[in-house]
Design brief:
Length: 310
């Protein structure tokens, strides 16, 4: 997947001090969003194919059965994982992959309770060795589908991973940011809906004063850095937690819209979001404030801030 490619590319660049800096995140952000649109265009064709298979398979089975007892199923040849299996026999194990999953319908004003996320998740096999972290951030610590301002149709989980960005995107460049060397855990979940609807949410855990360093750096970078774009600082007063930042920029994906990023800190943990809103900076900031308040509630309920008070 694109985010894994970005991670591996960024990791490789970090270790190659002899090369000039390459803006890997900027290049791959566009590729990721382009791939997302391609997936949507493929969805209609995929649905038609599935419908054809659902009709064809039962018909073909009844013809081939020739009146035989439908309960009798031929055993597969030894070593043939693709052959038919008797009822109850599990399918051969396969390597897990990240795939989009349907999400429940949600309301932005009155959230519909979604499924309870698992308390833990296995280490993503695509995460490079040594970058999963020592603190497992559970999916339940992040915003869920029922808390979004749109109905997601696809959900991608990128974690655990130490190098997820606090604001999802980089403000000043691909390099390490203050506090990154103290990160001990992280997870990002990316939701995709219809049209241009998408949202990324991130939770990170730090040791020492890593979270404070990170937030101070992000605050200073808003309005002063121009990497892919310049995010202008917005009012974050009154948001929950020990610290908060919000920034907006013209959206590159929603005509006339606004991209907004933000994060709240509680102890040595942070929760961040990135979303494109069909509205001006004030409207985008209002959406971000609602999402960050809910993200803080999720973060505190996970118990991570209590375990890492900072």
């Amino acid at each position: 997947m694109v985010d894994e490619l970005q991670r591996r590319l960024a990791d490789a660049l970090d270790h190659d001090a002899g090369q000039a800096p390459v803006q890997a995140a900027g290049l791959l952000d566009g590729a990721r969003l382009g791939a997302r649109r391609i997936r949507r265009r493929r969805a209609a064709g995929t649905a038609a194919l599935i419908a054809l298979v659902l009709v064809a398979v039962p018909l073909g089975s009844s013809v081939l059965a020739g009146g035989a007892d439908p309960g009798q199923v031929a055993a597969p040849a030894p070593g043939d994982p693709s052959g038919p299996r008797p009822s109850g026999q599990p399918a051969p194990s396969q390597t897990p992959t990240l795939t989009g999953t349907p999400a429940p319908t949600a309301s932005f004003v009155e959230p519909v309770p979604g499924p309870v996320p698992p308390a833990e998740s296995p280490v993503n096999p695509d995460v490079p060795d040594g970058l999963a972290g020592t603190v497992l951030v559970p999916p339940g610590a992040l915003l869920g589908a029922a808390e979004l301002p749109f109905t997601p149709t696809e959900t991608n989980d990128y974690g655990p991973y130490l190098k997820n960005r606090t604001l999802v995107t980089s403000l000043c460049g691909d390099g390490a940011e203050p506090g990154d060397d103290l990160a001990v855990g992280g997870r990002q979940i990316f939701f995709v809906g219809d049209g241009q609807d998408s949202l990324a949410t991130v939770v990170r855990v730090f040791a020492g004063d890593g979270a404070r360093q990170q937030m101070e750096y992000l605050r200073a970078s808003l309005g002063s850095c121009s990497y892919v774009t310049t995010y202008e600082p917005q009012d974050a007063g009154g948001l929950p937690g020990d610290d908060a930042v919000v920034g907006t920029a013209p959206s590159a994906f929603v005509s006339g819209g606004t991209a907004v990023v933000g994060a709240v800190r509680e102890g040595n943990t942070t929760a961040g979001i990135q979303i494109d809103v069909d509205g001006d900076a004030a409207a985008a900031t209002a959406v971000a404030r609602v999402l960050l308040t809910r993200a803080h509630e999720r973060l505190v309920a996970s118990g991570l801030p209590a375990e890492h008070p900072g």
